[in-house]
Design brief:
It is a single chain. The chain is of the alpha+beta class. It has a single domain, classed as Gcn5-related N-acetyltransferase (GNAT) (Aminopeptidase, 3-Layer(aba) Sandwich). The chain has six helices and eight strands; from the N terminus they run αββααβββαβαββα. It has an eight-stranded mixed sheet, with helices on both faces. The termini are far apart. The relative contact order is 0.14.
Length: 226
C-alpha cells in the first residue's frame, strides 16, 4: 500500500543534455546556432517584422550588427541551447528553436524561445522542425517530459502547441515579468508515452502524398491523430 502511494517506479537514468548535432529533414535542417554561419540569413528572415518579437524576452533589433551580437551571445549558452533552422530550398537560416529549462536528472526539457522568420511561417518546414526536435528529445536524448510554455495572451503559440500534440495543463498566474510586464504562463506538455502516436501523425502529415504540386497540405495534422 505504501509503495502504491509513492507513484510508479520509472527508469531514473538521467537524460542527455543537448549538444551540437545536425538533424536532417525533407524541408529543413537543424544545426547548432552559430553567429558566423547563421546571423546573416536570420537577419534577412526577421528584419521586416517586429511582431515576431512580441512575446520573446529580447528584440526587436534595429540593425544587423546588434542582432548579430545577440545571436552570438545566444549561441554560447548551454541552457537555453539554441539551434538554427535551415530552409533547404533557400539554403539559409530562417528561424531559431531552443531547448531550455534542461533537467536531465528529472528527464524534463522544454521547447521555447521559438523565432520563426517570415519565410518559415506556415510552411511545411515549420512543422517538420518540431517533429525533428521532438524525435531527438525523446529518442536520442531520452527525456520523458517535453514542455511548451507561453504567455497566456499568445494565442498563436497556444494553438500551435495543441496542433503539434502537446496537452494543455493549466495556467501559472504572475509567473514571470517580461519586458516590464506581468506574464501569466500557459503550460503544455508531451510525454514519452504520447510520442509514438504523435510521431506517427507527424510522419503521415509530412509524407509527400499529403501535399499538392504547390506544396499545400491536403489533410491537417490533427486529422492524423483522430
Amino acid at each position: 500500500m505504501q509503495e502504491a502511494a509513492l507513484g510508479p517506479v520509472v527508469d531514473s537514468t538521467p537524460a542527455q543534455p543537448p549538444e551540437a548535432v545536425t538533424l536532417e529533414g525533407r524541408f529543413c535542417r537543424i544545426e547548432k546556432l552559430d553567429a558566423g554561419r547563421h546571423a546573416g540569413g536570420l537577419w534577412e528572415a526577421v528584419k521586416d517584422d517586429d511582431s515576431l518579437w512580441l512575446y520573446l524576452s529580447a528584440g526587436p533589433f534595429r540593425d544587423r550588427e546588434t542582432f548579430r551580437q545577440w545571436v552570438e551571445e545566444r549561441s554560447g549558452l548551454a541552457d537555453p541551447f539554441a539551434y538554427a533552422v535551415i530552409d533547404k530550398a533557400r539554403d539559409a537560416a530562417v528561424g531559431i528553436v531552443t531547448l531550455m529549462e534542461i533537467r536531465p536528472a528529472m528527464r524534463v526539457i522544454e521547447m521555447g524561445s521559438i523565432l520563426y522568420g517570415t519565410p518559415l511561417q506556415r510552411r511545411p518546414a515549420a512543422t517538420e522542425t518540431q517533429y525533428l526536435m521532438a524525435r531527438h528529445v525523446f529518442e536520442t536524448l531520452g527525456y520523458r517530459r517535453y514542455e511548451w510554455k507561453c504567455n497566456t495572451l499568445n494565442a498563436p503559440s497556444r494553438a500551435a502547441a495543441l496542433r503539434l500534440g502537446f496537452t494543455f495543463e493549466g495556467i501559472f498566474r504572475h509567473h514571470m515579468i517580461v519586458k516590464g510586464r506581468s506574464r501569466d504562463t500557459a503550460w503544455f506538455a508531451m510525454l514519452d508515452s504520447d510520442w509514438p502516436a504523435r510521431k506517427a501523425a507527424f510522419e503521415r502529415w509530412l509524407a509527400p502524398d499529403n501535399f499538392d504540386a504547390e506544396g499545400n497540405q491536403l489533410s491537417r495534422l490533427s486529422a492524423f491523430r483522430e
